[in-house]
Amino acid sequence: MDLLRQLRLVRQHWWIVLVTLMVALGVTALVTVRAQPRYVASVTFFVTTPSQGVSDAYQGGLFLQQRVKSYAELLTSDRLAQSMVSERQLGLTADEVQRRVSTSTETGTVLLRASVTDTDQARALRITEALAANFVELVQKVETRPDGSAGPIKIEVVSGPGVSPTPVSPQPVRNTVIGALLGLLAGVGLAILRGMADVRLRDAAGLQRVTGSPLLGEIPLDPSARVAPLIVGEAATSARAEAVRKLRTNLRFVDVHEPARVIAVTSALQGEGKTTMSCNLAIALAEAGWRVLLVDADLRRPKVGDYLGIDSGVGLTDVLVGDVHVGDVVQRWGDKSLLVLPSGSAPPNPSELLGSKAMSDLLLALRESADIVIIDTAPLLAVTDGVVVAVQADGALLVSQQGRTSRTQVAAAARALHSVSVRLLGCVLNMARVPKTEAYQYEAYRVVAGTASTDGIPAGRHAERDAAADKVDHTQELTRLSR
């Protein structure tokens, strides 16, 4: 995974980083507040030797440096701790004294530093004083020669004993910085892991990779679409409507050598917006002056009639079983060159009915009566109806909702179409969360675009004028089909 992909995952899951950072800071603050203050008392020893003990100064220096290392071990030895506990009232055991003592030496010197860390400031000083006195006494005993004369080593206290006036721990500033850094790193790691484990579609590029087809449209999320799903009225000037028009343009030029006139609109799962997309795409094509016929072929859960406000009691199923003629049930919608063939009564065998010869003959007839036929079909993974219809169309348009459908489900839907040699015209990412900058750009420009005109005719009226001229021919053709 490249750096750009990781940064994108962190941005998408920024809330994980924020929550982890806040938790880390909270834990750090709790630990800092509940921690007992600790004080450090220290003493520094200087190790030397009389000049008569070693003739060569260089060899004497090496000798003392080796001794300092041994004395550092002696400061934390059991013997010294036992002597301190037995001679002084420290209120601690020998093991407790040992755990509080630490030593350090400076390379190339003969200085030895001992530190005592304790939660009691006064007790830390008492232990350090006892340590200094007992250590000097112990070294003298160890270095005394068998004849009772003084040894070649002399220990002197050159600094301390002294205790720090303020606690050395906890350190709120240091702890906060460390906690924030750890929380930030943990949050970034969790965000990346969450993104890698997330199998849902999150962007248009992922949809293209999974389906292996071009991205024809990216419809932005519009909360008002729940109550007003169609791009008419005030919604006709929204960013969502403009995205549908862009889809219309891309769909018409996806293959100029073999344009698709019968298009099946489907999705992997229910609820991804395929019916709304079918209706809005048909409306957008009709606005451009095309003679459009919208067919509701989702016979199990038809919704086209509900969205367009037309009667769906008689329609496609009744035509396929031969009860009525298609020209008798096709309904004109609005003042556009858009005709709608509703679903009709619910059949007991939708798949067989949609795959029948009657359906194939109907599509051939509808192809001649309209410039473009848009067919709303059932979801691909739920039932086989969508594949049955898509096989008979010129191509299929796959609609996927961002953040809802998984990549596996979309891939399975694409395989279902490819397995029967259906021409996948492209894919559409529905309810996409586009950057705010793009929305601002459209909102700033749409006022000017809405007032534009040519030859004194308001923008958009040219298409209506051309469509009005085609309505008579359109109606006459459908009337011919009904005979």
TrEMBL record:
GO terms for molecular function: ATP binding; non-membrane spanning protein tyrosine kinase activity. Residues 1-87 form the Polysaccharide chain length determinant N-terminal domain. It catalyses: L-tyrosyl-[protein] + ATP = O-phospho-L-tyrosyl-[protein] + ADP + H(+). It is a multi-pass membrane protein. One of its GO terms (cellular component) is plasma membrane. Residues 456-483 are annotated as: Disordered. Belongs to the etk/wzc family. This is Polysaccharide biosynthesis tyrosine autokinase. It comes from Micromonospora radicis.
